[in-house]
Design a protein that fits this description.
Layout (H helix, E strand, L loop, with lengths): L1 E2 L2 E3 L2 E3 L7 E3 L3 E9 L1 E4 L4 E10 L2 E4 L9 E4 L3 E4 L3 E5 L9 E4 L5 E4 L4 E8 L2 E4 L2 E4 L5 E4 L4 E3 L2 E5 L3 E5 L3 E3 L4 E5 L2 E5 L2 E3 L2 E5 L3 E5 L1 E9 L1 E4 L4 E10 L2 E4 L9 E4 L3 E4 L3 E4 L10 E4 L6 E3 L3
Parallel strand pairs: 1-4, 2-5, 3-5, 4-6, 5-7, 6-8, 7-9, 7-10, 8-11, 9-12, 10-13, 11-14, 12-14, 13-15, 14-16, 14-17, 15-18, 16-19, 17-20, 18-21, 19-22, 20-23, 21-24, 22-25, 23-26, 24-27, 25-27, 26-28, 27-29, 28-30, 29-31, 29-32, 30-33, 31-34, 32-35
Length: 295
């Protein structure tokens, strides 16, 4: 069934292998319940208004074509239900599957039983009470632009990348960011609270990032020609390596205020042998005190 209109309320039910709705441009779903498959075909867009119950799957760009395809959030709303929103961007262009705000003030809440997964970009201000997972090998799911609040799990599976960048602050106070065999990159953000966990080959890479009151249970690598700042406290049960590759390029950890680093982990300075200022720990203004707690 092809849709190209505003649907107010009711149910979109799709049964069987071939049962599917195609939401073409000019489609707005207002307070709708989706039971089954709904696709936003490539080079189209759909809009959501006034909450959505999704017990099926909503796929943005199902064929992963190299064409702009998105869902826009018209107003602050909650997506609930037991279903999933799947982003399938083209490997050459992450902006071929994305979730966008309307004017910028809108907030998308992902409920506790709902999943957003795949590869593409999530631009809209998001509160995650469920699961957001990068799960397409060789591709990236990026949380960009507007702030993100994580109250549950953000994850990257083996071979996949979850990128968190661009927004000034990311609040993870009640949440877990999990490198579940995959890679999580933190770029140009301040991440506040919560836990950074890793399973198997999972790891984190940071690029000019501030970690504020974080518990680290993973491997974190500060990239050459960048820095990571620590604020308020750090519980480190994993490892933090300053200058992952030992490159001859400035790389440091800065202590923003007097604080204690506790836990059973390690901070590793991996400076280039030709230049010890490629892996160092520095103060902010000069009065800060770094205390290393008992292991």
């Amino acid at each position: 069934v092809e849709l190209s209109a505003t649907i107010n309320g009711g149910f979109l039910n799709a049964n069987g292998v071939n049962g599917v709705f195609n939401a073409l441009s000019n489609t707005t779903l207002t307070a709708v319940t989706v039971n089954g498959r709904l696709n936003v075909p490539h080079n189209n867009s759909a809009r959501l208004s006034n909450n959505l119950v999704n017990n099926g799957s909503i796929t943005i760009n199902p064929n992963a074509a190299n064409a702009t395809t998105f869902i826009a959030i018209n107003d602050s709303l909650t997506v609930s239900g037991t279903g999933q929103i799947v982003l399938k961007s083209n490997p050459l262009n992450n902006d071929t599957a994305f979730i966008l705000f309307n004017g910028g003030a809108e907030v998308l809440t992902n409920s506790a039983t709902h999943t957003i997964r795949g590869a593409g970009n999530i631009y809209v201000n998001t509160i995650n009470n469920g699961l957001i997972v990068a799960d397409i090998p060789g591709q990236t799911l990026s949380l960009v632009s507007q702030p993100k609040l994580n109250n549950n799990i953000l994850s990257a599976l083996t071979g996949c990348t979850l990128n968190i960048s661009a927004a000034t602050t990311q609040n993870n106070a009640n949440g877990i960011i999990l490198a579940d065999g995959g890679l999580v990159t933190l770029q140009g953000i301040e991440l506040t609270g919560g836990r950074l966990n890793a399973v198997g080959t999972g790891l984190f890479r940071t690029f000019t990032t501030t970690l504020n009151s974080i518990t680290n249970n993973s491997r974190i690598f500060v990239q050459p020609s960048s820095s990571t700042r620590i604020s308020n406290s750090l519980i480190n049960n994993g490892s933090i390596t300053v200058n992952e590759t030992g490159a001859n390029a400035g790389c440091f950890m800065a202590i923003n205020n007097s604080l204690t680093v506790s836990g059973s982990g390690r901070i590793i300075l991996n400076a280039n042998p030709a230049n010890l200022d490629t892996g160092y720990i520095i103060f902010n203004g000069g009065s800060e005190v770094l205390t290393l707690g008992p292991s």
